[in-house]
Every structure is written in structure tokens, then in C-alpha cells.
């Protein structure tokens, strides 16, 4: 631990962070919870239809259920007695035969309905859209193409007979035409989407198996920091990092425990760390159980105190022989901003320490913390893409530059401009983040990006450009 920081590239440090986390255990997620708060969670198991969609043959139009064999091929109208009504949800005059049942969508034997063979004469039954088709029927004639013309909403059946002719289409949706029992709706590794929640519900499921949502503790260090809501005294700085990192972690899909600012005092930092990892629970098997208490976290992110200053409290704690500490790595990542970084475990819980400069903390989150959250959540780290530079810009030599960029309508990128001064390739200005959609990562040996050059671009949580 007396060694200096290890010099690394962005990719090397990102790999070191990822190596410290593993996907969280699978838990069942009831569909109402999936709809209310589960979007984006990662499936731990394939989702397999438990029932057919539609579950039974039903009418696609309001009209009359008929048997095609009763209607002349040449379109000549016939008059049929109206012998009943079927509405959606009415289990339909006991006429839903075996093959129409959700658990048996493929069976075509319809002998289970005694009237199927047409023992009674020709007839029509009023049927409403969505209602189960009587087993003797094989088509629906829309009401507007019959002598009835229209049904009165809420009105009782009055017509004794109806005149209609053979329809061009059957207007029947058959059981299982959309989905069959056993169809794979989504694979482990896919995300929960609104469509999946709906399709799973329609296909007879009540829950999805997902990886538990990661819980991330965020705390910032610095005796100059005051809560953003407090009146600032001389020399005080609003703690924007803990809010920023909490918001980024939330946008990346984590639940967040935000502790806020801890002064530059080793004992205070130890106490705060113990508070978020909840002591012995974090060590034990319980941490990986689905029902583990909410007081544990899966990842700790701190900002500040990692450079060379006399009051750099994270460095001080990491250099101590505290029994709660393990796996300490101090890194000097050859990047700008965000050079001083550290990794450790506190009572077994992975701890990523990012620098305090707000832009450095922001960039560090996107490069190192977000991929870790994605892995805990059971997913893959967000992939970088390439984009063309819309303008030329300079970057510092000898280090990878991480440049907040705006993504233009054309798909090209340009450095996000701070409110004052010009956009450049190595800014520390928080105001430039307001316009940033993504980060461009420029290799260490590039000093000037020319308009039209391809650059590597990484999206930001909460931004979709
Ligand atoms: N002698 C050296 N000095 C510094 C080095 C170095 O290598 N040798 N590295 C520089 C670099 S690069 C960075 S980045 C910073 C990172 O330092 P720390 O992680 O120790 O951050 P602090 O000193 O705690 O704070 C830096 C700066 O950011 C402000 N800050 C911190 N936390 C917050 C917060 N929660 N909300 C808003 N602003 C925050 C803080 O007030 C300072 O102005 O070190 C360089 N120095
Ligand atoms: O690396 Mo520091 O993060 O340049 O600002």
C-alpha cells in the first residue's frame, strides 16, 4: 500500500472495476411491480408463454356468429333465427369446447360440443367483439352488414331473426394465432419493457424472474462541502457531486442510498462507510439472498479525496491498515479529466472512489461506475459507438481525453460548450455538462481531432442520443 498509484488506461481501469462485481441473484418480480417500477431490469430467465393468445377463438367484430355452411356461396341473403347473445366474459352458453381453452390451444377435436354436428337447425347468435365463438360457429357477420344495422349499446336483444349473407372473411381470431403455450417471449439478458409486461400478462404469466436491482451508496468527501440546500458560508461549496452521482446511478437503473457530504476526517468516513454497508450483513451469504435486507448495498461510490493533498481523506483511509478494508488499488488513469482513481472493498462491498472535481466525477461515473451497475444488474456494459466530429478540437497530449459532446441531428458530435468561454477538449467546467449528450473518448496519441474524423462515443445515463 505504500506503492504509488498504478498507471493505467481507461480500458484497464474499467476492466479492474468490472472484475470486482458479479450479477446479482435472480428474484421474482410480480407483473404489477414490473409495470410500476421494473422497466429496464434484466431478465434472469427466459420468459415462456404459459397460455395461448388469444386464449380461445373469439369474434373480431360485433355481429352475428354463424356457420358458413348455412350461407349460400353465391352471396344470396338468408334469414336466420337469432337464438342468443354472447358477450365478452360471458363463458358463453357453455359452448366453449376443449380446443378453445387456454391450456389446450392446438387441439382441433370439437366433438365435445354436442351442438357442433348441427343437430338443431340453422341459426345466428348475437356476438360482441372479444366474446368466445360458439363451437358450432365458424364466422362472424358484422352487424352493419345485416338487416339489424346496428346494436344499441346497453340494449336488450329484440330481434327474433336476422337477414345476412356469407361474409368475405370469417372475422374470427383463433386460439393461439398470436402466441402458443411454450413460445419464448424474451430471453435471459433482455430488459423488461412495457411490451414484455403486457405480452407476459396476456400469455398467462404473473411474474418475471429478474436480477435484483443494484443498490448503490453515494457519498462525497470534503470539509468544504455543505448540503446544496444550506446557506453557503465563506469558503463553502455546495455538495453537487453526491446529487449528481445519485442521479446518474438512478438513471443507470440502481436504487440509491445517498449519504451526502462527509468531512475530511478518517473516523467520520469510516463511520459513514459502516453505515451504508451495515457491518456483518455485508460479509455474509445473506447479501446474496433475494430477501436480504434493504440496508445493505452492492456498491459504494465516493467522490473526492483521492489525489495527493494533505486533506485527501479517501487516500488516508485506503492507506490505513483498517480491518474493514481489502483489495485496495490506487490508480493513475492516463485520462483527462479523472486521473486519480481508487478501488477497494469495505467489509466486502466493492468501493469505487472517483475524484472530486465535478466533471472528473461525472466522467468517472460514465466510464467506470455505470458499467459496474450494468453488470450487477445482470446486463452488459453499455457499448461505445463511433461518430464523426462536426468540428475540429484540440485535446491534451499523452492522455486519453474524455470530452462531453453534443450529438447533432446529423449524428455528428461537437464538444459541449460551457456557458462562458469556448468549448475545448479537456474542460473542467460543469456548465458544459448541461449540453452534453455523450462523451467522446480520444486516444492519448491524438492531439487534434479534425472535422470529419471518427471518434469513439459513449452515451450517458438518462440521455438517448
Ligand atoms: N499535487 C496534486 N494535486 C492534484 C492532483 C495530483 O495528481 N497531484 N490531481 C488533481 C486532479 S487531476 C484532480 S481530478 C483532483 C482530484 O482531487 P480529489 O479527488 O482529491 O478531490 P478534492 O480535492 O476533494 O476536490 C477537488 C475539487 O472538487 C471540488 N469538489 C469535491 N467534492 C465535491 C462535491 N461533492 N461537490 C462539488 N464539488 C466538489 C472540491 O471543492 C475541489 O475544488 O486533484 C487534483 N490535485
Ligand atoms: O484528472 Mo483531474 O480529474 O484532471 O481533473
From TrEMBL:
Q: Which domain of life is it from?
A: Bacteria
Q: Where is the composition biased (Basic and acidic residues)?
A: 101-110
- For the keyword Metal-binding, the answer is yes
Q: Which GO terms describe its biological process?
A: Mo-molybdopterin cofactor biosynthetic process
Q: Which UniProt keywords apply?
A: Magnesium, Metal-binding, Molybdenum, Molybdenum cofactor biosynthesis, Transferase
> Which EC class is the enzyme in?
transferase
The record's region (Disordered) falls at 87-122
Known catalysed reaction(s)? adenylyl-molybdopterin + molybdate = Mo-molybdopterin + AMP + H(+)
* Gene Ontology molecular function: any one: molybdopterin molybdotransferase activity
- Pathway where this protein functions: Cofactor biosynthesis; molybdopterin biosynthesis
Which Pfam family, any one, appears in the UniProt record? Answer: MoeA_C
One cellular component term from this protein's GO annotations in UniProt: cytosol
SMART domains given for it? MoCF_biosynth (SM00852)
Q: Which InterPro entries match?
A: MoaB/Mog-like_dom_sf (IPR036425), MoaB/Mog_dom (IPR001453), MoeA-like (IPR038987), MoeA_C_domain_IV (IPR005111), MoeA_C_domain_IV_sf (IPR036688), MoeA_linker/N (IPR005110), MoeA_linker/N_sf (IPR036135)
Q: So which residues are the signal peptide here?
A: none
Q: What does this protein do?
A: Catalyzes the insertion of molybdate into adenylated molybdopterin with the concomitant release of AMP.
Q: Which family does it belong to?
A: Belongs to the MoeA family.
Q: What is this protein called?
A: Molybdopterin molybdenumtransferase
UniProt organism field: Isoptericola variabilis (strain 225)
